[in-house]
Amino acid sequence: MRFRKKTAAFTAFMNGLVRNIKRDEVLKKFDTSNAAETVGQSQLSNVIHKYLEKYFQNFKNPSRKAAEECYWEGQRKRDGAAKMIFGGRNYPDLIIYSPYRIAIEYKLHKSGSLVKQGIGQCMMYTMSGEYDFALLVYHDRTKEKTICSASKKQQEKLIIEELKKLNVFVCFL
Asked: What pTM value is reported for the model?
């Protein structure tokens, strides 16, 4: 299995994307207590669009270019047929097509089991070769942010680092 190489340019792009997601005021103040996952996806889509607009600022119409290069589930029809893996198709919640093909999975919950589910989905995106990279954005719904706090423990940090070898990145909110 061959994975796309993580260049300095990609690392800068991904670090900038994650930093923008973590710093976004709307996502920070987002009341997750009763919100549907699709509402969080929509807000995340807006953050990604803004980031891509800035990335494509030298294009004639950066907003249009950003819209062309970012897909949000339900926004428009998917491009082509996804590969069948274990009898099912890979459908990420969001996709960045350019400058890197990145599948993005968004989870909004108070259960750690959905972190593992999201990681598994992201692994399938990159291991199938359909996407060069994958990003799990997990919105911790617990009042004490226990899942987010757990991600800072030694074992979880090691797992997150190992996932990078599979081109899978994780962002906790």
From this structure: 0.92
